[in-house]
Amino acid sequence: MTTTAPGITKATKPAKARRGGVMGSTGLYIATGVAALLFLIPFYLIVRNALMTDPEITGETWKWFPTSIQWGNITEPFDDVTVDFAQSLWNSVVVAVLHTAGILLVCSMAGYGLARIPYKHANTVFYAVLVTLMVPTAVTFVPSFVLVSSLGWVDSYRGLIIPGLFSGFTCFLFRQYFLGFPKELEEAARVDGLGYWGAYWRIVVPNSLNFFAAIATITFINGWNAFLWPLVIGQDPSAWTVQVALSSYMTNQTVNYHLIFMATAISILPLVLVFLFLQRWLVQGIAQTGIKG
Amino acid sequence: MSASSNMNWDRRNVLRAAMGLAAAGGLAACGSNTGRSGGGSGDGLVQYFHAYGEAGVEQALKRYAKAYKDAGVTTQWITGNNYEQKLFAALLTKNAPDVFEFHPQIQLVKSGQVADLTDIIEPVKDDFNQADITSHTVDGKIYGVRMIDDPQFLFYRPSLFKKAGVEVPTTLEELIEAADKLTTSKVKGIFLGNDLTSIDRPLIWSAGADTLTADNKPAFNTDAVADGLKQLRGLFTSGNLLLDAPADSWDPSALIQGLTAIQWCGMWAMPAMQKALGDDIGIFPFPKVGSAGKQSVYNGGWSMFVNAKSKNVEAAKEYVKWLWIDQKKYQEDFATSYGFHIPPRTSLAQSATKLKSGLPAEGVKLFNEFGHFDNIGWTQAMIAAFWDVIANTVRKDGDPKAQLDACEKKVDAELKKLFG
Amino acid sequence: MSTTTTRGVAQPAPAKVSRPRPRRSLRASSTFNFWLFTGPFLIGLIIFVFVPIGWSIWLSFFEARFTVTPSEFVGFDNYQQILTDANFRNSLVTFTVFAAFIVPATWALSLGLALLVNRLRFMRAFFRSVFFLPTAVSYVAAALIWKMSLFNGVRFGLANTVLGWFGVDNIAWLANPDPPWYWLVIVTVRLWLQSGFYMILFIAALQNIPRELYEAASIDGAKPGWQTFRHITLPQLRATSTAVILLLLVAAYQAFDEFFNLLGKATWGQPPLVELYKMALGQNQNYGAGSAGAVVLTLLICVVTLLQGKIMGFGRGEESK
User: Fold this and answer.
1) Which Pfam family, giving just one, matches this sequence (chain B) (predicted)?
2) Is C164 on the interface with B (CB under 8 A)?
3) Three-class SS of residue B203?
4) Cα three-residue angle B359-B363-B364, rounded to 5 degrees
5) Does some domain include residue B231?
6) Shortest alpha-carbon distance between residue B179 and chain C (Å)
7) Are B217 and B380 in contact (CB under 8 A)?
């Protein structure tokens, strides 16, 4: 990131200078600023509604800011007797972290195997993986649920996590990435007497951390935001993830706006932090993906 | 059993899950059952309830269950708009509830999903509202115990009616006219739910038609119903109908927040409305549609069923009998302490003091005078087919007659599958 | 597609090498290693993906209501039912319309944002974060914001408040399909949620374009701006564009959450997954017909993907957009 950035700025500088410097870049910043404002509106609404009283939210005249900020709203989701919000947050953390770790482990190995280990039926296996990308998950949903339930995994972390680990898509991305991984590095490892296993863990993985980070970020988001599966697997409130808890607020009679939006804000916060922190790696990782062909 | 409800998701469980992961996708590690020791385990009962919106209902149900000495009962409180799909998905598995609440629908009986409860109801049959017995009976057997009856009608703000000089409407024309007079720049005249599906059956009944005939043939495809749909289309496009309210019609928010002057809602919401609006609240039945029609009230409600595929059918029946037949105190508490509902037991309905005066008494009167009950043969698939008619003719400009014909065809196909 | 062929070509060589050395230990055997690496994934895939798929196919030939272990074989009845179902056919139209909106819109917006952000000298990280942040929000949360605060039909919705300043009456964004404002709601929610992610893809690609190309172009007298964009940037982004469009199509095809949460009991704006979901889980628990629909849909997608692979592979890529 930091190394390429100056290069790009240099490349675009002369262009801007010729178009009349200040004017051009002012226009650029205005355009970007307007777009950014539009993108921030929903976040603004969450925060506004979360810190307002309900009569103010539903009042006859629109208020851009709370007359007095209701800081007390912050603890409200945690005081709610019907939904154990703190527990659901913890469940989401556990599920998202283990989901991410599991996918990285299982899918990266499979991707590597498909990309780099010669085996005469490898293509057949690869096509079998590809086929799963075409089948809509919402439809195999019921058999999946019955299957997982018959394993006794309802209301358990296992039920929430394990069935989602075998992502054909992630495996596909890893395979594409490993196809482009420099062969020389591995061959050097082989000369040193390492098998596939050793080469993979000592050479390939350590040299692919950016890509792993990129996949990890995306996987983590998906794990955190998943709804339908956790909804059905989490029968008992103690097994709810935060998304399920969030949806439950919508059924309370006399909709409680500030509570809903405060819960939403809290549910988004961890991801926003993860994001701001990991963004750099994500950008670098994506720059190396097989995605760009 | 109790261990399951307050099961802690502590580090050990996390660790176990992690180990499961490590063991090549967890296949080796699935020996023990970490989940709740629900349906199949034989030492306790599991009951499913949809999330009632009123505060305190969940605690009340758990309190009743705790007082039952013969078996441990765990309550699953299903929130979100997903009760049916969660219930039905669970019913396919060994984690199925032993006891669950639902509406009487014949496909549950035909597929052998619900147990015959005739023997526990028979002794007190005469104390039940007879319509509630009929709506749960198939071939002489009774399959569910009605817990509560929920009449649904139109709520209105008398103060706004007075200001606009509007009388309580008795025909659909009058209702539409009233909505027009009541609409201001800030307040819409009427709210019938965002998708208008909650007035599906009232519309049919008020037009003098019915969902099905006594011998289970479609009876809703009449000119009066088609005219009613056409009139509603007019209302929909008039700008006097509240649309896209953040909370739907089963929630009293729209009326309480002053978004509308009239709202379709159920008796359960009365306490919340009275608390927010005091005396400024009145009710009237769904007005008559066309000249041959008659005002109607939809007597919905919830019933208790026993899962016939449960391993504890007998214990489950015992529990249902204990709570919903023997424990009248709890039944009255459930029907009147949170939202308002009408107890299906005649003796209770007569003695429940909270329903004896004021608006609740008015509700009981409408329930008795104009009420229509569920027809067990009118299943979810048919309901959905009629919802499509509403969507296509009221919210879209479809031809009512053609849509009703198409709906009748679908309903016929369903009936054929159910009754041969 | 090209990657698989290179792989096929590369494959025989090492296979030949390994055969004359049978004395080498099991650990070095490539067959063993192949299964070592892919085994855990494949076992899971079989249990949690292929078994349910197979189960669905099996169900599609049975009268399966309220049960997933049916006994009444009905042949192709379910297929006949689904293919004559107007709702199901409409859902395919809905998907086509939706894809026609969302794919070009997201492509253009994310590319536009990438170009903007990429030219910034100050606060670049800030703006990139702003555009990227919505990716962190779930469909559940986004649908909630859109439905309850942004596009609700009453006076305290932001969109209606703003329109109110100009004397426009409250619009029922979702309840009234005529005019179809619901597309605006559906499309904006998805644009907001996913543009940032594709913007990152484009930024990465933009930074991979060799600087020399621009320098050479300016020497050749190409005007910066549209000309260089048209003749250098766009062609250089072709691979990324193709990938983005493919990903967008897959995502559009899987669209479920926002439709399900925003539109409710409508007969319009129901993409295939919602339609099948309603059939199997929502109304009458008809797993047979639902599964039949899934099979039909899967076959359709396979055909379309194959065709698209051909077109994308040999066509002129994003210029034809």
Assistant:
1) SBP_bac_1
2) no
3) helix
4) 120
5) yes
6) 16
7) no
Distance in angstroms (rounded) separating the CA atoms of residues C168 and C160: 8
Touching check for A100 and chain B: CB below 8 Å? no
pLDDT lower than 70: segments of chain B? 1-43, 80-81
Is residue B273 located within the same domain as residue B409?
Answer: yes
CATH of domain A78-292: 1.10.3720.10
Q: Is residue B31 a part of any domain in this protein? A: no
Identify which of C44, C113, C208 has the shortest CB distance to residue A166.
Answer: C44
* Chain C adjacent subunits, 3+ CB pairs under 8 A: A, B
Interface test with C, best of A134, A173, A211, A219 (most C CBs within 10 A): A134
Instruction: Measure in Å the smallest separation between the Cα of B287 and chain C Cα atoms.
Output: 23
Is residue B92 situated within a structural domain?
yes
Q: Read off the pLDDT of residues C201-225 as tens digits, 9 standing for 90 and up.
A: 888 888 888 888 888 888 887 777 7
Smallest CA–CA distance from A10 into chain C, residue? C211
B211 and B291 fall within a common domain: yes
- The alpha carbon torsion through B316, B322, B323, B328 (nearest 10 deg) reads 160
> What number is the ipTM of this complex?
0.80
Per-chain mean pLDDT for chain B: 87
Give the residue ranges of DSSP H helices in C175-237: 182-207, 211-219, 226-228, 234-236
Range of the domain at B160: 151-299+379-419
Query: Which CATH number belongs to the domain containing residue B131 in this structure?
Result: 3.40.190.10
Mean pLDDT of chain A: 81
Say whether A123 and C204 touch across the interface (CB within 8 A). no
Any idea what the Cα angle at residue B235 is, between residues B401 and B242, rounded to 5°?
Answer: 130
B219 and B240 assigned to the same domain:
yes
Query: Which residue ranges make up each domain of chain A?
Result: 4-74, 78-292
- A36 contacts on C by Cβ (under 8 Å): 127, 130-131
Give the amino acid at C140.
Answer: V
pLDDT surpasses 60 at A12: no
pLDDT of residue B235: 96
Domain count, chain B: 2
CB B164 within 8 A of CB B220: no
| Domains contained in chain C, CATH given | 1-59 (no CATH), 75-320 (1.10.3720.10)
The residue type at C215: E
